[in-house]
């Protein structure tokens, strides 16, 4: 066996094949759904996964307002933002964020599961979250995927 003939194939922007995936978040636990969505965005489910390349899919999440949290997380968990000005630290719970904007709650949780670098920022642009069942991406013909069936 000639071991020099084996080549490691790395994906690049020209060779990667991106798909559009639709996820219905109705009655799904937020953290468990977000881990699967982050995996789809990153492209770790594909055989040609390359860590430094955006080889993931475009993900559309609908019904973000119907997502669930287990335990006492609606009021017990606290998210912080800081504007870098004195007195600019703000704290809010998931319940407050859900009342204001369910899309931002889902985006914040998925963002926390992506790499904290330029690649993570570009991967987050492939995520589209909508509070209701309506979405403007019918032209891309996304395929509906059940996250419970993914491994």
Quick recap:
The chain is of the alpha/beta class and 151 residues long. The protein is built from five helices and six strands, in the order βαβαββαααββ.
Task: Outline the structure in words.
By secondary structure, the protein is of the alpha/beta class. It has one domain (18-149): Ribosomal protein L13 (Ribosomal Protein L13p, Chain: A, Alpha-Beta Complex). The protein is 27% helix and 15% strand. The protein is built from five helices and six strands; from the N terminus they run E-H-E-H-E-E-H-H-H-E-E. Strands 5-2-1-6 form a four-stranded parallel beta sheet, with helices on one face. Strands 3-4 form a two-stranded antiparallel sheet. A hairpin with a 6-residue loop joins strand 3 (79-82) and strand 4 (89-92). The two termini are 33 Å apart. The model has no long low-confidence stretch (mean pLDDT 93).
In what order do the strands lie side by side in the largest sheet? 5-2-1-6
Number of helices: 5
Order of helices and strands: EHEHEEHHHEE
Secondary-structure-derived class: alpha/beta
Q: What is the CATH C-level name?
A: Alpha Beta
CATH homologous group name: Ribosomal protein L13
What percent of residues adopt helix (DSSP H or I)? Answer: 25-40%
The end-to-end span amounts to: 33 Å
The CATH topology assignment is Ribosomal Protein L13p, Chain: A
Number of individual domains: 1
Low-confidence stretches at least 5 residues in length (pLDDT < 50)? none
Percentage of residues in strands: 15-25%
**Mean pLDDT across every amino acid position:** 93
Number of strands: 6
Main beta-sheet annotation: 4 strands, parallel
The gross shape turns out to be: globular
CA gyration radius, whole angstroms: 18 Å
